[in-house]
Amino acid sequence: MVGIAQEVAPGRFRESYGRYYEEFEVGHVYEHRPGRTITETDNIWFTLLTMNTHPLHFDNAYAAKSEFGKPLVNSCLTLAIVTGMSVSDISQKAIGNLGWNDVKLTSPVFVGDTIYAESEVLSKRESQKRPTQGIVTVRTTGKKADGTVFMTFERTILAEENRFDAVLNEGFPKLEAELTSAMGVHGHVLPGEKAFRLYDTFGLPL
């Protein structure tokens, strides 16, 4: 989990999570915390809420006669939890989640198992259509507390570049030109909502 306390006023701090595009490095591995122990309520409620009627997830008598001998945790639940574990590291600053790929279920998960997750950055590139954004792909691995890998998948996000750093490194005129071109406006005459967002994000007078 990435947590940064930013001072927004003297003696006042605001928590911030996630990463900008520039902060991802191919090959880096992020261990996500905290972990999560799966409960029977988690499994039954999620299964029935999502209209999955397979009794292996909520019928103890049925599950006792299966090769597992007890109910299985719904794999869509573990996919959701593992993805959620990665958000504060991977996608809390993302513009959008572009999709999952190559989801593999390598070991069963049971009620009472404690699970953790980690993500490795596989690739990153700047967007060809969105000049202030980039595409990042990670491989996320779900592990039990004993180290058993029960799930892997690739996830791709649309990440925002840190425009505040651009202001510091390249100067405000370049950012102003990009905004003017993108919004079809002139000078500092920006639509109210976008002007407020820019001021709130960068503290720039418009």
Please characterize this protein's 3D structure.
The protein is of the alpha+beta class and 206 residues long. The chain has helices at residues 40-49, 60-64, 75-90, 163-170, 172-183, 192-202, and strands at residues 3-9, 12-17, 29-37, 94-105, 114-126, 133-144, 149-160. The chain has a 5-stranded antiparallel β-sheet, with helices on one face. Strands 1-2 form a two-stranded antiparallel ribbon. α4 (163-170) crosses α5 (172-183). 20% of the residues are buried.
Alpha-carbon Rg, integer? 22 Å
Q: Note the beta-strand portion.
A: 25-35%
Strand tally, please?
A: 7
Quote the average pLDDT. 85
Q: Please count the helical segments.
A: 6
Q: Tell me about the largest β-sheet.
A: 5 strands, antiparallel
- The SSE order reads EEEHHHEEEEHHH
**Oligomeric state of this protein:** single chain
Give the spatial strand order of the biggest sheet.
3-5-6-7-4
Please give the alpha-carbon distance between the first and last residues: 34 Å
Structural shape: elongated
Low-confidence stretches: 186-206
SSE class: alpha+beta
**Could you estimate the helical fraction of the residues in percent?**
25-40%
Question: Tags for this entry?
Answer:
single chain, two-stranded antiparallel ribbon, alpha+beta, 7 strands, 6 helices, five-stranded antiparallel sheet, elongated, about 35% strand, about 210 residues, disordered C terminus
